[in-house]
Amino acid sequence: EPEVTQTPSHQVTQMGQEVILRCVPISNHLYFYWYRQILGQKVEFLVSFYNNEISEKSEIFDDQFSVERPDGSNFTLKIRSTKLEDSAMYFCASHRDRSSGANVLTFGAGSRLTVL
Amino acid sequence: ELKVEQNPLFLSMQEGKNYTIYCNYSTTSDRLYWYRQDPGKSLESLFVLLSNGAVKQEGRLMASLDTKARLSTLHITAAVHDLSATYFCAVDRRGGGADGLTFGKGTHLIIQP
């Protein structure tokens, strides 16, 4: 079964450092997302991406965050200068389109980011 | 602001018992999603409810949707330990194509022998 692949599975970084989290969505999917989940808390929307541009972003997704799809397969999330409160599990998700009438996301296994 | 509220947030129950998790939401969306998350793992899609009155069942889990009441329920029948997990409901953020989902806080379910 096709899956969304994320790397790294765990990254530890110092506060103020840049971090790039990588995702390879399912190959025929068109819509891509990043979510985050602080330990034991709800899953929060960060950003959606379609047709090589951001479709929507939440208030969490400030100027320190950016996304890109550099080569048609990878989908990356960059945090420019990490803060302690960025420590969380970051999930990439994708779906193909709305023709089925539903917005069913397939999630990757997540990248755990620990900021010290 | 779109709100998705689940209750209870924590539930400890014995094997063999029945229970219901509730999900209330503030949008007028007619679609609702249920996901399961095992500890330290990703989110797995369980059900997609696409219209008012929709009911879906998979094994001991049954989900239903009442769009007029803006309420979905996830009913667990004769619980078994393997169903221990966190269950999230979610709704579409907007009506557009790339809207993604807004999740509730999740219901952490522990099923004890």
Question: Can you tell me the overall shape of chain B?
Answer: globular
Radius of gyration of chain A: 14 Å
Strand percent estimate of chain B: over 45%
Interface with most residues: A-B, 27 and 25 residues
- Quaternary state of this entry equals heterodimer
Q: Give the C-alpha Rg of chain B.
A: 14 Å
**Which percent bin holds the helix content of chain A?**
under 10%
The largest β sheet of chain A comes out as:
7 strands, mixed
Residues in helices of chain B, as a percent range? under 10%
**Beta-strand share of residues of chain A:** over 45%
Low-confidence stretches of chain A: none
Find the count of extended strands of chain B (DSSP E, 2+ residues). 11
Shape of chain A: globular
Low-confidence parts of chain B lasting 5 or more residues at pLDDT below 50?
none
What is the H/E order of chain B? Answer: EEEEEEEEEEE
Total E-strand runs of chain A: 11
| Mean pLDDT level of chain B | 91
Count of individual helical segments of chain A? 0
Termini gap of chain B: 41 Å
Gap between N and C termini of chain A, in Å?
36 Å
Estimated structural class of chain A: mainly beta
